[in-house]
Design brief:
It contains eight helices and nine strands. The protein is of the alpha/beta class. It binds uridine-5'-diphosphate (UDP).
């Protein structure tokens, strides 16, 4: 059993919400996300979620085909707000009250993010969904996740991906690749392993904020994590 956690921040990529199609949103996946979160709620963990937008739009890809990068990133940030709204709706329908905050001001659509407002909603028991990334171009939602985790004083950042942890090599290419159960920030750097982008990684390392990388499509993965089972990879200070 893990030591009790007060607050956890989960980073969900846009692709994780898209299901098999890899694009757009899948209602069944949104409902599945709600079911995965229940064990955390039952144990009284306050929950923040940063959503990506890659299922609709990625600034870098559009910029590569000639779109102005700043404009493309603005569109990417808006895509994350679409995901945040739809996820909040699915969670609320499943009996999990959720508030959407946006880093990009759009007061008729979502609350503008402030640490104080998010803190109040978390204390009131809402799941806080943070859209709009950091609110600035040239950043990623991984960085937004590290930032929000630091701002709300999370005990843990869970990076929910399609891969079940951090491997010594690409498991799709190298049959001898080994999954790490635990690895330090320094060892990740020394081995040049990809956990998250450098800006996000540096912030977590500096704040001594542990990160767990896990496969979110594994049924009960969060409950098993809380029960202390060997799921994913713990990246620790
Ligand atoms: N984005 C941005 N600033 C941020 C976060 C995101 O400009 O702080 C834009 C960027 O264009 C990015 C897109 O939003 O490609 C979607 O985010 P991301 O690629 O991180 O989503 P994910 O891969 O997690 O689905």
């Amino acid at each position: 059993m893990l030591a009790p956690m007060r607050r956890v921040l989960i980073k969900l990529s846009g692709e994780a919400l898209a299901g098999e199609r890899g694009h757009g949103l899948d209602e069944q996946v949104l409902a599945f996300v709600g079911r995965q979160l229940v064990p955390l709620r039952e144990r009284g963990v306050q929950l923040g979620i940063v959503v990506g937008g890659g299922n609709f739009m990625r600034g870098v890809s559009s910029a590569a085909s000639g779109v102005d990068r700043v404009r493309a990133d603005h569109a990417g940030m808006l895509a994350t707000v679409i995901n945040a709204l739809m996820l909040a709706d699915a969670l609320s329908r499943a009996g999990l009250p959720a508030t959407v905050f946006s880093a990009v001001a759009m007061s008729t659509v979502a609350e503008t993010f402030t640490t104080r407002a998010a803190d109040a909603r978390l204390c009131a028991g809402d799941i806080c969904i943070f859209g709009g990334g950091t609110g600035h171009p040239f950043f990623s939602t991984d960085t937004a996740a590290a930032l929000r985790a630091a701002e709300i004083g999370a005990d843990l950042l869970i990076k929910a991906t399609q891969v079940d942890g951090v491997y010594s090599a690409d498991p799709k290419k190298d049959p001898d690749a080994q999954r790490f159960s635990r690895i330090s920030f320094d060892e990740v750097l020394a081995r040049r392993l990809g956990v998250m982008d450098m800006t996000a990684f540096s912030l977590c390392r500096e704040r001594k904020l542990p990160v767990v990388v896990l496969a979110f499509d594994e049924v009960d993965v969060l409950r098993r994590l809380l029960d202390g089972e060997d799921v994913g990879t713990w990246v620790h200070p």
